[in-house]
Prior knowledge:
The structure holds 2 protein chains of 2 kinds. Chain A is an all-alpha fold.
Amino acid sequence: MAIQLYLDRGTFVHRLHPTVKVIALFVMFWSVYWVDNPIALLPIGIFMLWVAQLTGSWRNFYRYRWYFIILVFTTTIVWLFFYRQGTPLINLPFVHVSRGSLVYGLGRGIKLAELLGASVLFLSTTRVEEFTVGLAKLGVSYRVGFAISLAFRLVPLFIDSAMTIVDAQKLRGYDFEKGGLFERMRRYVTVVIPVFMSALRRANNMAMALEARGFGLRNNPTTLIEYPVMPADVVAGLTLFAIATGYFLIYYTGYGAITPG
Amino acid sequence: MNGLRLMWRNTRMVVLCAISAALYAAVLVPFKVVPLIPGVTELRPANAIPVVCSFLFGPAAAWGSAIGNMIGDFFGGASPGDIFGFFANLVYGLVPFKVWETIGGGESPVPRSPLGLAKYVFACLLASVLCADLVGWGDNLLAIRPFAMLGNVIILNNMASAMVLSPFILAAVYPRVRKGRMLYQDVMPELTPPPAALRVAGIALLMIGEGGAWALGNLLSTGYWVPAFLPAWMNAAPHDKSIAILVSPLILLAFAGLALM
């Protein structure tokens, strides 16, 4: 089971400094956060699609296609229950359908889909080690960064181990889909315990290996790979600043808001 | 709470943190039993892992739970609300062992008697409610999703896993980890809990804070209670302002309780 989204395409976005990529993710979140109106959310959506085209990330977007659709649909429906404003088109005890609630719900759905799109783009163009370098440059302790990157690296190993156990149990005739909701959950005990025990066996050896290599002796260890700041990083940084400022101005001038109606 | 900072100095705890995170994410990503709200959350057997790890690895499990959830979010779509998800999972891994230090009486957390089971349920319930409060409050503050939606589903989700799966995993794993001297008390014996009176006061504050936040969050986000002392524009959907004003102090109270423990 492939869980890594990184696509080694070598585009200029892939080559950007890790800190710029982490800031880019933040700018996408920031920009999307300020506006509610679906129309105001369109430009950043188009920008993300352009970056997806540029970086060859369509494969990952295709992988998440149903998730995008379900996210927009479910979010729009949910806000019909909670956004009880505007002239009602349909007004039931729990559901309040008005132009305002529909536009608001759709806006929230698009917003969440764009946030998902931003994280898919980030993961399609950023390696785990780049992510931790980016965090370290932003002031996160290298021990925390190490724990994050180690965890990222261990996940596929543990998933493989879990899938092997699932297959072995199925071969013995164990049915994970049998029974009610809680019975089905309980059946995963037979998977989790072996995975847990094999993980613990690794922990001791890993700690000894790390200590033998001097982990934790210095607060600012040197790194094998250096990431110099290039002119493309400056251009990308300025572009991101312009997007962040632009979206704040859309909010500030009121163009990003919706009116209950 | 000091343990959350001190654990980063201990290499073994850093490794246990990464292992807890990877285990959580490894079960989180592929095994989703039933979608509770499509595209938003699903019944996840993985939610049993932070509880188990909390009793075993203490503060390392708290960080592991937060990092594991972050990794899971990256594969299911990140959003600004995930910052709250990070801290919500941190407390989901922190509260069980902290509460157990006070009510456990030095016994194993594996429930073997009705009293032991009651204590176990109490510890898990406190953790689940605070986790749900933080996500519901945070998402509603950012006007992404209403409190009532996630605030209740997360409690159900966490408690289902903690009741159906965790006791079985704990029963199998806890004696082995204790024998291998890998419990957090063995790895970091310097982590001593504060005086009992402070811890009891902490639990009381935690209960009042998180219980009040849960009740108010539900009432405000559904519009069943419209505080007359707030101006109308503050009470308007998506209720982010009224939740910010009324629920935030209760969340702070819960954290004050946690700090005392």
